[in-house]
Amino acid sequence: MFEELLARSVVDDSMKLGILGNPQCFAVAADGTPFYSGGNPGGTKVCDCKSPRRYSDMDARWGWNSYRDQWFYGDNLFCIVAADSPYDLPVYLRICQASRHDSVLCIFALSELRELYPDMRIAEVIADGAMDNYPTYELLHSWNITPFILLDSNAKAKFSGELPSGVLCLDDKGNPVCPAGIPYQNCGYSHPKGIKYRCWFACKCTDSPYGRTVYLKPGDDLRLYPPVHRDSKAFRKRYKRRTTAERDNKRLFIDYDIEAYGSRSSKMRFALATMAAINIHLDAWLKFTGFSIIDLLDMDSAAA
What we know:
three-stranded antiparallel β-sheet; 13 strands; 7 helices; six-stranded mixed β-sheet
């Protein structure tokens, strides 16, 4: 219900104004953030004995806040933001139990996003390492969406296909390593062979004076070898747009301070987040059109 309200009340109009980006090549940034409950996680006593206790927020759950490195009590608010918008505009919100991981939320969110905006073609998804898993890459590949997702720093790179001749293993970034233990140099994509890697020193370990060259196809491992390689300038430049999701969270939780209400209901928390997201769009409309209430009042005064 709230997803539909946000989409039909403001997002559609922002798209018509042209402040969300190209709807036929739409890029989104996705991120989840803790939404703290106003209820007491320990509950309150209902009698002199130790139990039972009364809990004012029956919807809240415990979850892990990786940014603050601590547990929190409440919900997980997942936001999808227009990555190419100069105003950091949210296009989709979903609230879920705090214990639900972002990688699971991302799948549901992207599926519902496609249903909410059937005329929009999502071309890129920009996300952090929380969404780094094979099912997500396979799903995005089936939808013809280019992923810009960092490798999870806690996960080890494991190639799912067969390593080509001349490759001993992969390093922690997914780059092939030669039998001498030296990572190959990434030379970009070479159609139709795949991503080209060349020996840094052109060592005479082969008959070629150019040095040993190996190729890895993105289709062999969608996670380690996405269409845009993580070591490329294009990937780093595009990934910088992920901060638009962080700025959107700042607008919700600091500028509009949606946690200050101390809500003890997931439905109320979702309503507060949705109303704040609508206001973010309205603020963008004012900036884009240059509308000023002061100018309108001056015109009324002059007419009087």
